Amino acid sequence: MHLPIVRGAWLAMLLCLAACSSPARRDDAASLPPSTLLLVSIDGLRADIPGSGRMPTLDGLFAQGARAAWVNPSYPTLTFPNHYTLVTGLRPDRHGIVHNDLKDAALGRFESKKASGRDGRFWGGEPIWISAQRAGLKTATMFWPGSEAEIAGGRPDHWRPFNSALTPDQRVAEVLAWLDLPAAERPRFITLYLEQYDVAAHAAGTFSPQAVDAMHTIDTALATLLRGLETRHLRSSTNLVVLSDHGMADVRTSDTAYLDDVLPESMFSWSSLGPVAHITPRAGLEAEVARRLIGRHDHYTCWNRDTLPAAWHYGRNARIAPIVCQSDTGWRLQLRRHPLPLQALKGEHGFVPEDPQMRAFFVASGPDFVPGVELPAFDNVDVYPLLAHLLRIRAAANDGTLQTFAPALAPRADTPH
Ligand code: AMP
Ligand code: ZN
Ligand code: ZN
């Protein structure tokens, strides 16, 4: 029990650690008591799933750890923009991964799941593994969007090319093997990325038997991870942050709106379709394309990129096409003459971040957290300053705030005076 004044002073010091500390010397963070930070992402797991009785291990963390009512994903509610926001604290507009697929005037096309997705020139800002390395900490990524690219001059000390065939249990085994490395090589920051729920929910629906199976597989792997920490006597010195990038909604393949019903394909080019379409008018046709497209249509809305809703913090990055179209929840945007057949989908995300179905979850436990606290909802840009705080390193410039977590952060002995 803390006297309010003591707690207030401590909070001020705590917040100052993120906001006003000078850069950590190379050995500062490395020389502090060895705590480990594990960042786990369960892609697409909606905020209403943890604590709902479907994933006993995650439910246990949820009951005992510090959790958020929910997390607001950044716009657009897609995997790559949001995972990279989580590790940089920057809105997609600022870190440059403005969509899973985009076009850059100088660099050309970026396709997140192809070779160009591993080209470091597309990835702006400073991911937390680079921030940690700058402070002398070893880092490892068991997959994470951006982790395969050389960004800001480096990569995690240990990383793997994305391989969907690796099961959650195999990924956990790799994480535990990293924790068994000799102290000098052992990573102090580790990510674990799990896409099995996202894949199953897209294919079969948010609560389909396949999606529920994926929840179980993931939950079993989480149990193995916790057991592995316990047998290594690392549980009490490990901060565990488990979260998702966005939620998921059920959709019907037939709920597709066609942009070429409104204007002929010859009048524009596109760099992405789906729930969020980026449209560039052909030269000389800007006014005509805008006249036909900007505004409300059946099942979607289009904006000039500089008049998008302010709450989305989106539209200043040059990679965002002049016109952005956003479908209503459940719908997606396509072309009738699209070269690829329409992919059958039962679940989808990419809908407006204000839709409760797009909400992500957050739970954390470990020595730096007060158990059992429920934080009000926050924007996912706040996660990066939290990670920097947990690693006891200086955060790079970012769009988030550590203040969000003040009620959930335990006082600690090494807070600087
Ligand atoms: P999406 O649902 O289109 O936003 O993207 C999520 C999917 O991207 C996941 O289900 C994975 O299959 C895939 N994915 C995730 N991380 C990577 C990565 N690092 N490299 C390639 N593909 C990835
Ligand atoms: Zn995702
Ligand atoms: Zn997805």
Tell me briefly what this model is.
The protein is α/β, with parallel strands linked by helices and 417 residues long. 27% of the residues lie in helices and 19% in strands.
Description:
- Residues 1-28 have low confidence and may be disordered.
- This protein has eleven helices and 21 strands.
- The chain has helices at 4-19, 28-31, 56-64, 79-88, 92-95, 128-134, 168-179, 196-204, 209-231, 286-293, 383-391; strands at 36-42, 66-68, 71-72, 101-104, 108-111, 139-142, 158-159, 189-194, 238-243, 249-250, 256-258, 268-272, 276-281, 295-297, 300-304, 323-327, 332-334, 347-348, 362-365, 374-375, 378-379.
- It is α/β, with parallel strands linked by helices and 417 residues long.
- The longest helix has 23 residues, at 209-231.
- It binds adenosine monophosphate (AMP) and zinc ion (ZN) (2 copies).
Rg result: 22 Å
**Overall mean confidence score, pLDDT:** 92
Secondary structural class: alpha/beta
Outline the biggest β-sheet.
Answer: 8 strands, mixed
What's the CATH topology name of the largest domain? Answer: Alkaline Phosphatase, subunit A
User: What is the total domain count?
Assistant: 2
The CATH first-level class of the largest domain comes to Alpha Beta
Strand content: 15-25%
What is the approximate shape? globular
- CATH architecture descriptor name of the largest domain: 3-Layer(aba) Sandwich
Q: Name the CATH superfamily classification of the largest domain.
A: Alkaline Phosphatase, subunit A
* Percent helix: 25-40%
Give the total of beta strands: 21
Low-confidence stretches: 1-28
User: What's the total helix number?
Assistant: 11
Task: Give the bound compounds.
Answer: adenosine monophosphate, zinc ion
Read across the widest sheet, the strand sequence of neighbours is: 7-6-8-1-9-19-2-20
Distance between the termini: 21 Å
